[in-house]
Amino acid sequence: MNKRLLYVSCCIIACITILSQCINKAEKNEAAFRGPQYAGAAACAGCHKNIFDTYMGTAHYHTSMPANTSTVKGSFAAPDHTFTYDSATKVVMEARDSGLFQAAYNNDVPQESHRFDIVVGSGRKAQTYLYWQAGKYFQLPLSYFVPAHSWANSPGFPADHPKFDRMIPSTCFGCHSSMVAKSTDMQGVHIVESFEKNQVVYGIDCERCHGPAAEHVQFQSSHPQEKKAMYMTRIAELKNQQKLDMCALCHSGLGTPQKSMFDFKPGDALSGYFFPEFTAPKRTAQMDVHGTQYQLFTASKCFMKSNDMNCSSCHNPHNSESNNMELFSQRCMHCHNTASHNFCKLAELPANILAKNCIDCHMPALPSANITLLTNGKQSPTPDSIRTHLITIYKEETKKVLARLKQAS
Ligand code: HEC
Ligand code: HEC
Ligand code: HEC
Ligand code: HEC
Ligand code: HEC
Ligand code: HEC
Ligand code: HEC
User: Fold this and answer.
1) How many domains does the chain contain in total?
2) Domain carrying residue 349
3) Could you tell me which of 389, 316, 305 has the C-alpha nearest to residue 342?
4) Which residues does the UniProt record annotate as the domain Cytochrome c-552/4 (predicted)?
5) Over the stretch 73-105, which tens digit does the pLDDT of each residue have?
């Protein structure tokens, strides 16, 4: 190779190395506020590739994201981009050079408009959007409702005018992100939160569930021969209640937090994070989109009459398995099968048909009373539907399923 070429290629390599270090640094700095004990999900990919790859497809990973044309699900093109409140008032979704906006108009005169900064919700059912202004996050007036493929008035917002001033507290991020940077001030007797723009670790990442893992990464990287995990909680060795609490942190509804939900690590007890609830409303009436899966599941006979059932009895936390009823039904049949004489007692259907979908009869999707969304042009709101985790016998739902099966055949 001639010397000049060698010199040029060395320069190129040096440049690439420096550049990639800068990029790495930029990525690191973005999440640096989370603290040096965290390594970030990308650091797990090398040694846990299969888990990492499937995890990237989960609702947890996508439950909060920076807003852009690929993450916001709804339409920015006429006529679907308009939500009408009355003949004079509307909000239009606008893709501008400076970003995506919700812009209010009164008789076509521009009023308030704000940018989509953050998407909350993976978009299985719904997405809602936040904008940042002067240290606060606010929810935008319109959400996207997936079953209706339509923009919809954000839940709990007034139906007659766009509201731009609903402030969003850090608890929202506590369930929908892996960390948010905030500071708190006292104003009289009130605690006021402020946020730095873009200081969010989006999605629910590996370390949100497994706890900080920088030491684990460091150790395993410098001891590649070591096949045992160090500096990492072994979930298999936790008590069943501890395993349940790992999920119940976010799946037991909106409690009043005693300390930051971000501090929760596997092995911790949920009771240390929330004030106890003294008023226990009727279990099924408690359901809302921020589902109380924990309460409903633990009230089910399946749970009460077995010893060590937990969320992982049916869910693989690293895979997206939504809508795969046959797969979930197989998990029911680990316990409920003809050999154990506790298979389904419904006489109307043969076992091979029952086996395809235990779920629609025993865990039906029921309409939420709390979360309803008014879509464009509709007079009454549509309820979101939620899969109940109270596993029992639903006579009415069974009739519907039987009718559906009859129609299909
Ligand atoms: C240099 C390789 C390496 C990296 C990087 C790495 N791990 Fe591990 N990890 C291992 C090894 C080896 C084990 C033990 C074998 C196994 O369970 O796969 C392990 C096990 C685990 C376990 C199971 C613990 C148990 O025994 O129940 C968890 C959880 C885990 N790692 C999480 C993470 C997370 C989160 C990250 C990223 C922040 C990460 N690991 C990065 C090598 C690594
Ligand atoms: C206690 C934890 C918790 C808090 C606090 C919380 N959420 Fe949720 N949220 C959830 C859970 C769990 C789900 C999924 C529930 C389900 O599907 O049954 C969810 C679902 C959603 C969805 C629908 C996602 C989809 O595609 O299905 C949206 C949108 C949403 N939340 C927005 C918010 C906003 C905005 C806030 C703050 C004002 C908030 N949530 C506060 C736990 C929480
Ligand atoms: C929603 C919470 C959650 C998230 C997010 C999560 N895990 Fe897990 N992980 C668990 C639970 C719970 C178990 C125990 C599973 C069981 O009991 O079957 C587990 C088990 C593991 C294990 C050991 C058992 C196995 O399957 O090999 C490894 C390794 C692991 N996780 C790595 C990761 C990595 C890497 C990521 C991110 C790419 C990640 N996890 C994201 C909850 C989570
Ligand atoms: C930090 C909060 C948090 C923790 C911890 C958490 N989840 Fe979630 N989970 C959520 C939120 C938020 C959603 C809604 C995601 C979306 O936007 O669609 C969700 C959605 C889900 C879904 C529905 C989406 C799907 O993939 O089918 C399942 C199932 C689920 N979680 C199971 C679990 C289990 C099991 C655990 C414990 C191992 C767990 N979660 C721990 C917050 C959490
Ligand atoms: C870990 C084992 C296990 C798994 C997995 C399991 N169950 Fe159960 N289930 C039980 C036990 C134990 C009982 C109580 C039986 C009794 O009372 O004799 C029960 C009870 C029931 C009942 C009767 C409830 C009532 O209120 O009378 C139904 C229906 C049921 N299970 C359906 C299901 C479905 C559907 C699934 C899957 C989504 C499932 N089970 C998964 C163990 C399990
Ligand atoms: C007996 C099996 C079983 C157990 C145990 C179980 N789930 Fe589920 N879960 C399901 C099935 C089946 C679905 C419906 C899946 C679908 O519609 O794609 C579901 C759906 C969900 C959803 C999405 C709800 C919706 O309507 O979008 C969440 C969130 C969830 N589970 C969380 C949990 C948590 C947290 C636990 C533990 C407290 C848990 N599950 C325990 C079977 C189970
Ligand atoms: C078409 C709706 C439907 C489907 C599908 C279905 N079940 Fe059932 N199941 C019922 C009804 C209704 C009963 C009550 C039957 C009776 O007592 O006459 C029942 C009874 C049961 C029982 C007995 C509860 C008791 O009283 O002890 C269990 C356990 C059960 N089902 C589990 C399952 C499992 C597991 C599957 C999937 C393999 C399944 N079921 C599929 C509707 C259904």
Assistant:
1) 2
2) 280-409
3) 305
4) 170-211
5) 999 999 999 999 999 999 999 999 999 999 999
